[in-house]
Amino acid sequence: MVERDIKLDFQRRARLGLDEAIYCGHKTLAQLTAILEQAWERDASLLLTRLDATQFAALPESYRVCMDYEPVSRTAFYGAVPAPVAPPTVAVVTAGTSDIAVSREAARTLAYHGVACEEINDVGVAGLWRLLERVDELRRFPVLIVTAGMDAALPSVIAGLVSGLVIAVPSSVGYGVAQGGETALRAALASCAPGVVVVNIDNGYGAACAALRILNSFGGDLRRAG
Questions:
Q1: Is the domain of 19 the same as that of 104?
Q2: Quick one: CA dihedral 19, 111, 223, 211, positive or negative?
Q3: For residue 100, is it within any domain?
Q4: 12, 168, 192, 203: which has the fewest Cβ within 10 Å?
């Protein structure tokens, strides 16, 4: 059976500073159950991403009661995951409320790894005053994850106003030529603001991992910067 061939990477945090995340899209109930069984046997925690509500509801109750599931981000924590206690060192920013599913995936990934963040939503450039009201707040953060769809102008604007690392997440939000986020991705890659880091479309998880890598590389100093 395929489930017998599942080999989780329980040593990843020791190598990379990040746990393996379980991407649940296209996984069967049997595969997910086998993964959770391996975690249970080792008394290990897991971060599950792209776990939709139907998949979660179908899991055995013995596993569901051990999970913190959030339907907005489609993420779940399995096992004991302490809440972050440090001051926020990452700002997770969205252009509009339609981007929150992606930004929450980033925020939840950070929380799983013990990093607190400040979530700042609905500050897109179509109402620039909303962003300008919060520039001083944004300047406090060494790392900012910025999610935007349509023309994805927000990461470039923020990167022109703050000194922190800006990680752009192009989202699939938008009409017509937005092409499911491809226009936003190209706009972010073509940003005239120097040093903007860009991840794949709707990849809040990947953006959080990029933030964690930069935080970890400074030995915790940036985690305390907030």
A1: no
A2: positive
A3: yes
A4: 192
Same domain, 33 and 128: no
Cα 171–Cα 172–Cα 175 angle in degrees, nearest 5: 125
| Residue 173 contacts residue 100 (beta carbons within 8 Å) | no
The continuous run of DSSP H or E covering 169 comes out as: strand 165-170
For residue range 98-155, what is the model confidence (pLDDT) as tens digits?
999 999 999 999 999 999 999 999 999 989 999 999 999 999 999 999 999 998 999 9
CB within 8 A of 219, min separation 6: which ones? Answer: none
Tell me the per-residue pLDDT of 13-58, one tens digit each, with 9 for 90 and over. 888 888 899 999 999 999 999 999 999 999 999 999 999 999 999 9
Of 53, 78, 103, the one marking the end of a domain is 78
* Mean pLDDT estimate for the chain: 92
Listed residues 45, 78, 111: the one ending a domain: 78
Q: How many residues does the chain have?
A: 226
Domain of residue 12 covers 2-78
Same structural domain for residues 211 and 99? yes
Residues 6+ apart with CB under 8 A from 171: 98, 99, 102, 147, 148, 149, 152, 181, 184, 201, 202
